[in-house]
Structures are given as structure tokens and as C-alpha cells.
Write a structure and sequence with these properties.
The complex is a heterodimer of chains A (100) and B (654). Chain A is mainly α. Helices cover 78% and strands 0% of the residues of chain A. The longest helix of chain A has 31 residues. Among the domains of chain B are: 216 residues, no CATH class; 77 residues, no CATH class. Helices cover 74% and strands 3% of the residues of chain B. In chain B, the strands form two sheets. Chain B has a two-stranded antiparallel ribbon. Chain B has a two-stranded antiparallel sheet with strand order 3-4. Classes of the chains: A mainly alpha (100), B mainly alpha (654). Chains A and B meet through helix 1 of A and helix 27 of B.
């Protein structure tokens, strides 16, 4: 029972993130949040299965993912700051330079 | 031993070092000529030292191995230097003339914008020529041969901004390429059959080559004949024999020191050198020898005659070079290889001197080359005039100047050993008439330029600086005395050793005995009995009458002189044939290729169809780039889901 609740939670989290990513067409910060959510759902899985298999590697992996996610969001936020300086907006629909 | 090795290498490599240093790093004019003259001087001194060592020692060839060129099995490919009597003689001549011309160029090229480039190139050329002569293997021969073509190309086109120079440049290189092609084939055959690149192995295998034959169009051809023919074609292009001579007159577009060094004294003699070097191979083929003799004799007479209608002083001397090269070829063809070398060396001295005197006149008259716009220069340029006079006498073969010895020997040999057939008589008569023509054209220049009325508009003409006068004087002295001095080396029982590995046939022995006999009996006494000397002196007198005493003679006989003049001015139509048949044919081929290949195949098919379709496709495909991040993401997630699905399906889980 606990297993299915946890796996369902993580699935819901991923799906929410995907939907948020696809239907939101402008706001870059929301996109970043969605990406972080995908990371989190993966983390939940790791921690749960580490407990399930009685093995510590999964939790170590989760810690590492948190670090990587932090670094990744730092880079993404920095890019957004730069973009704001350039275009005075964080609207992704304004990035049309490579449109074919 | 170690000293000898160092000397041998230094005799060749100083000009290379000087030329490279000058070309790459030097900017100042003074440093450039100092470096190059120093390099040439060191090389000259080393060669003199080697010569002394050689003469005082056991007269064994000095051989130094430099490197292993390649390490193929069954092929001995070492590169080395070898100073035997032949190489030392040639190297002495080349380095002496090159040194004098380096000094001459200081005066002649003064204030030229390409001064440093000129010195670098001429030093590198000297290196290439010395290397060609001193090397002891076919690879070195090939390297030297090709590099003198290359430097000749650079030097003819020295004034590359002049259209005529660029064209002459191209012509010379193209014709030399044709000859080099045959030369390379000959080299390849030789290396293939001797399994070695060393001269010594080639000489050792000559009999084997003579007994091997190759089928060409189902006719067995002796290998010595075949290789000899290929080498002769190479020599024809380099030594400007009919019909590949047309590049030499045009190459006079280069600066005068270049004409003196490359196109009179050294580079054009490379062909004669090659044939003499492999005289032992040519000796096997009587037919080839006859061809060489006939071509040489034809050139000696008819190419010399072209000088009679030319007005450009340098081109006149160039035609004279063609004629003298013909004499050398005759000597080669008759088997008198050492006499050919004798004439080659004497010719280098007086021809370089003639060119230097011509250059001095050209400098004095501010680059005027038409002899009819000169005249009366004797009073203002006495030293130049004297040098020109002396070397012209030497060229004409008047005793006791050096040209007399070599030319008279060639004529005596021709008289004694030309076959008693039509061709034999033709050869002898042609070179005999050549003796009449030579003084006629060279003294025509002399009387017109130095004597006679003044025709130039340059006011006060003064003598050239010492850098021009000094080398000219030295060469004039050499063209007076070198013949008598070096005669003992070229006749006598040891003379045949000059040409390496000559077979011991009766014809050659007989020839040498004949030469010894006429020399010991007094060459002058022999010459007085022969028509050749009378022809030479008659030529001088005749030219004095025609061009000095009665200059109106040519105008009075204009009507019947018009036809030969037309023929000579058009140079027997060689240029016409080349331009209208060969050039037209090949440019027609090129134009067809351009039309079919480029315009039709490439432009129409590839450019119009393929490239346009690519452009259209790319435009369509670029619509994928919508720049909506969420669409990218959707595509990515669908693709990811698909991939996971496929992998699960194939691993049997789904």
C-alpha cells in the first residue's frame, strides 16, 4: 500500500511537471520549477527504493541529485538574469532568433 | 679524412645557407650581398682546396656519404657527394663564374626593389647547380636537375610585374617540364634495372643494360638506347636544342646577371653535363649518337644565324649560346665527351663575359637594349668595350684565345670522325659554316655598339662601377688564357678518365690518339691547314666590311635580303608552329574540358539541380525550429517515451 502511494506520488509529480512544461508557453521560471519537480520525483523514487532494497546507495544518489539540481538551478537562474538584462523580460516566446 | 668531409660538404652548402638566411631574415641590401658573396667565396675556396688535394693526392675521387634517402629492400638509395676529376672541373667553373656574377650583381642590381630576393635566389641557384654536379647518385641528380629548373623559373620571372617576363617564365618552365618528364622516365628505368641509385652501380651495370632490351610496339629496344634517348630529350630541353630551344631567347627577360649565370654559363650546360656523365651509356648506341650530332650541328648553324637579324643585344648573345650549345652536342655525339666539357668551360667564361659587357652597356644607357640605339661607346666605356672585344674574339675562335682551342678541337674531331655519308658531310659543313656565322653576328654587335656613330640620346655615358668592371675583367682574362692553360688536362692519355667509366672501344681510343697527335704537333699548325680558322678570321673580316666599312651594304641589298630576313626574324617559324598547333590544340582541349566538365557537368547538374534542391530542402526543414520551448519539450518527452517503450518491448517486459 505504502509502495503504491509513494510511486503514484512520484508519478503524479512527473506528470504535473510535464503538463506544466507543455501548456505553459511563456514563463521561464515556471519551466525551471517544473524541471526541479522532475528531479524531486526521481529523488522520491531513489529514497523509497533504497529503503525497499535495504541499500544505502540510493540515498547517496538522492543527495547527489539535490546537489546537481541546486547547481543546475543556479546556472539557469543566472541565465535568466542575463536574459532579463538583454530583453527586459523572462518571456520565452521572445526568444525567436532561431525560428526557421 | 674528417677535414676532407667538412670541405666537401662546405663546398656545396655555403651558398645554400647564405641564400636561405638572406631570403628568410635579411632586410638590408648591404648585408644581403655581403652574406651571399661570402657564402659563394667560401664555397669557391673549398673547391680550390679540394682541387689541390685531388691533384696532389692519388687522384682518387673524393666520396662523402651524406644520408640514406630511403631504406627500401633491393634498392641502394644513398645520397652523397663525389668529387672526381669531372665534378671538380665543373664545380670550379661554376663556383668561379657564380662568385664573379654575385659581385657583378652588386653593381647591376643596385637600387632594384627586389635586391635581397635576387641575391637569395641566385645563391640558392648556385647551390642547386653545385649539388647537381657534385652528387654521386641519381636521386641527387634529380633533385639538382629539378631545382635548377625551379630557380631558373623564379629568376626569369624576376620582374614578375612585366607581362613579357611572366610569359617567358611560363614558357621556359613548361618546356623544361616536357624534358624533365622524359628525364624522369629515364631515371626510373635506370633505377629499376640497376637496383641502385649510385653512379658507380650504374656504370658497373652498363653492360647488363646494353644486353637487356625492352619491347616497344613489338620492337626490341636496347635499354641503353632507350635511356639514352630519354636523357637526351631531357638534355634537349635544358640545353636548348632544336626543337625545344624556343624558351632560351625569351628567357632574356630576366636581369642580365641571370642571363650570364643561368642562361649562358651554368644551367643550360646541365644537359651537356648529363650526357657526358652518362657518356658510357650513349656510347653503346650509334644511332642515338648520330641523332645528337645532327641536332647539335643544325642548332650550331641555323640557330646562330638568327642572331644576324636581331636587334636586342641580349637576345643576340642568347642565340649565340644556342649555337655554342650545338657545338657541344656535336662533340658529345661524336664521342669526344671531354672536348665537349672543354668547350663547355671555355664557353662559360667568354659567354659570361659577353653578357656582363652587354649588361654594363645596358646599365650605362639606362636599360636600352636595342643595338641600333647605341653606338660609339668605345670612348666612354673603354673597359667594357675591351672586354667585349676580347671575349668576342674568343667566341669566334681566333687563336690564341680560349675559344680557339676548344672549337678547333671540335672541328678537327668532326672532320676526322663524321661518317662518310650525307649526314656526316652535313654535320661537318654545318659546324664549319657556323664558324663563319659566329664572328659575323658577334662583331656586328661590336661594330654597331662600340664603334660607329653615336645613336643614343643619353648624353654623357660613363663607365660602370668597379663591381661591374672587376668581374668582367677577370672573365676577359680567363677567356684569353684559360684555353691554353687547361688544354693539358683535356688532351693526353689521362684525358679519357675525365668522363667516368667510358668503355674501352677502339673508336674512342682512335679518337683520343688523333686528338693527341694534332695537339702534340701544334694545334695552331694543324688549324692553319684546316678551313675552320680561315672561316673564323674570314667572318671577322666580313663583319668588319659589312657592318663597319660599308654599313650601306645591307640597305643596298635590301630586296633580296628580305626573304632570309623574314625567315630569320620569325625564327624559322618554331614559335608559330608551337603557338598555332600545340598551344591551339591543348587550349582547345582545355576549353572543351571546361565546357563539358565545368559548365555542363558541374554548373548545370550539380549547381542547378543538386545545390538548389539542397537549399529548398533546407528551407523546408528549418521550419522545425519553432523556437517554442514547450513544443521542443513535448517532442522530447514523446521521443523519450517512445524509446523507453521500444526498449521495454524488445527486452520482453512489455
Amino acid at each position: 500500500m505504502l509502495r503504491s502511494i509513494i510511486i503514484l506520488t512520484s508519478m503524479m509529480l512527473v506528470l504535473t511537471a510535464f503538463v506544466g512544461m507543455i501548456i505553459n508557453r511563456r514563463n521561464l521560471i515556471v519551466m525551471l520549477l517544473c524541471v526541479e519537480m522532475i528531479f524531486l520525483s526521481a529523488n522520491i523514487n531513489f529514497v523509497y527504493f533504497s529503503r525497499f532494497h535495504q541499500h544505502v546507495h540510493g540515498q547517496v544518489m538522492a543527495l547527489m541529485i539535490i546537489v546537481v539540481a541546486a547547481a543546475e538551478s543556479a546556472v539557469a537562474l543566472a541565465l535568466m538574469v542575463l536574459m532579463y538584462r538583454q530583453y527586459h523580460t523572462v518571456d520565452s516566446s521572445k526568444l525567436v532568433n532561431i525560428r526557421g | 679524412m674528417q677535414l676532407i668531409k667538412i670541405l666537401t660538404i662546405s663546398s656545396v652548402c655555403w651558398p645554400l645557407a647564405a641564400g636561405l638566411l638572406t631570403g628568410l631574415f635579411v632586410k638590408s641590401h648591404r648585408l644581403a650581398h655581403r652574406l651571399c658573396v661570402l657564402g659563394m667565396l667560401l664555397s669557391f675556396l673549398s673547391i680550390i682546396w679540394l682541387c689541390i688535394q685531388f691533384m696532389s693526392g692519388s687522384q682518387q675521387a673524393i666520396v662523402v656519404d651524406l644520408m640514406q634517402w630511403s631504406s627500401l629492400p633491393n634498392l641502394n638509395a644513398k645520397i652523397g657527394l663525389c668529387f672526381d676529376a669531372f665534378a671538380i672541373m665543373m664545380c670550379l667553373m661554376v663556383s668561379a663564374v657564380a662568385l664573379l656574377i654575385h659581385i657583378y650583381s652588386i653593381g647591376y642590381m643596385q637600387d632594384d626593389i627586389g635586391y635581397v630576393r635576387f641575391f637569395s635566389l641566385i645563391s640558392l641557384f648556385s647551390f642547386a647547380m653545385l649539388f647537381l654536379i657534385a652528387t654521386n647518385n641519381l636521386i641527387g641528380l634529380f633533385l639538382g636537375w629539378e631545382s635548377i629548373s625551379l630557380f631558373s623559373y623564379f629568376l626569369i620571372g624576376f620582374y614578375y610585374y612585366k607581362n613579357r617576363a611572366a610569359e617567358a617564365n611560363f614558357k621556359a618552365f613548361l618546356i623544361n617540364r616536357f624534358g624533365d618528364c622524359a628525364f624522369c622516365l629515364g631515371l626510373a628505368l635506370l633505377i629499376y634495372h640497376c637496383k641502385s641509385t649510385a653512379y658507380a652501380d650504374v656504370y658497373a651495370n652498363i653492360n647488363l643494360l646494353a644486353n637487356t632490351s625492352l619491347n616497344i610496339f613489338n620492337n626490341p629496344v636496347q635499354l641503353t638506347t632507350l635511356i639514352g634517348c630519354l636523357f637526351f630529350i631531357g638534355a634537349m630541353s635544358k640545353s636548348a636544342q632544336i626543337p625545344l630551344h624556343i624558351w632560351l631567347p625569351d628567357s632574356m627577360e630576366g636581369p642580365t646577371p641571370v642571363s650570364a649565370l643561368l642562361h649562358a654559363a651554368t644551367m643550360v650546360t646541365a644537359g651537356v653535363y648529363l650526357l657526358a656523365r652518362f657518356g658510357s651509356m650513349i656510347e653503346f648506341s650509334a644511332g642515338l649518337k648520330l641523332v645528337i650530332t645532327v641536332i647539335g650541328a643544325t642548332g650550331a648553324l641555323f640557330l646562330g644565324m638568327m642572331a644576324l637579324c636581331e636587334a636586342d643585344i641580349k637576345r643576340i648573345i642568347a642565340f649565340s649560346t644556342l649555337s655554342q650549345l650545338g657545338y657541344m652536342m656535336v662533340a658529345i655525339g661524336l664521342g669526344a665527351y671531354h672536348i665537349a666539357i672543354f668547350h663547355l668551360i671555355m664557353h662559360a667564361f667568354f659567354k659570361a663575359c659577353l653578357f656582363m659587357a652587354a649588361g654594363s652597356v645596358i646599365v650605362g644607357l639606362h636599360h636600352e637594349q636595342n643595338i641600333f640605339k647605341m653606338g660609339g661607346l668605345w670612348s666612354s666605356m673603354p673597359i667594357t668595350g675591351l672586354c667585349f672585344f676580347l671575349s668576342a674574339l674568343s667566341l669566334s675562335g681566333i687563336p690564341p684565345f680560349s675559344g680557339f682551342y676548344s672549337k678547333d678541337l671540335i672541328l678537327s674531331v668532326a672532320q676526322a670522325s663524321t661518317p662518310a655519308s650525307f649526314l656526316g658531310y652535313y654535320v661537318y659543313d654545318a659546324i664549319l659554316l657556323g664558324c663563319l656565322v659566329t664572328p659575323l653576328y658577334i662583331f656586328r654587335v661590336y661594330w654597331t655598339v662600340f664603334c660607329g656613330p653615336e645613336n643614343h640620346q643619353h648624353g654623357e655615358v660613363c663607365e660602370s662601377p668597379w663591381t661591374i668592371r672587376f668581374p668582367m675583367t677577370i672573365l676577359a682574362i680567363l677567356s684569353i688564357g684559360a684555353g691554353a692553360l687547361t688544354l693539358p688536362f683535356f688532351v693526353g692519355p689521362d684525358a679519357l678518365n675525365i668522363v667516368p667509366a667510358l668503355p674501352d672501344t677502339s673508336a674512342i681510343t682512335r679518337l683520343n690518339q688523333f686528338i693527341n697527335k694534332i695537339v702534340t704537333g701544334g694545334l695552331l699548325i694543324h688549324a692553319l691547314r684546316e678551313p675552320a680558322l680561315a672561316f673564323s678570321i674570314g667572318g671577322v673580316v666580313l663583319s668588319w666590311i659589312i657592318y663597319k666599312r660599308k654599313p650601306q651594304w645591307t640597305t643596298r641589298h635590301q630586296t633580296w635580303l628580305a626573304i632570309p630576313e623574314y625567315i630569320l626574324r620569325n625564327q624559322y617559324g618554331f614559335d608559330w608552329v608551337y603557338n598555332n598547333i600545340i598551344v591551339t590544340f591543348f587550349s582547345g582541349c582545355a576549353r572543351t574540358c571546361q565546357k563539358v566538365g565545368e559548365q555542363y557537368l558541374i554548373n548545370r547538374t550539380i549547381e542547378n539541380r543538386v545545390s538548389q534542391n539542397i537549399v529548398i530542402g533546407a528551407e523546408k526543414f528549418s521550419r522545425v525550429q519553432t523556437s517554442y520551448l514547450n513544443r521542443y519539450f513535448a517532442i522530447m518527452s514523446v521521443a523519450l517515451a517512445g524509446l523507453i517503450g521500444i526498449s521495454l518491448f524488445y527486452s520482453g517486459i512489455l
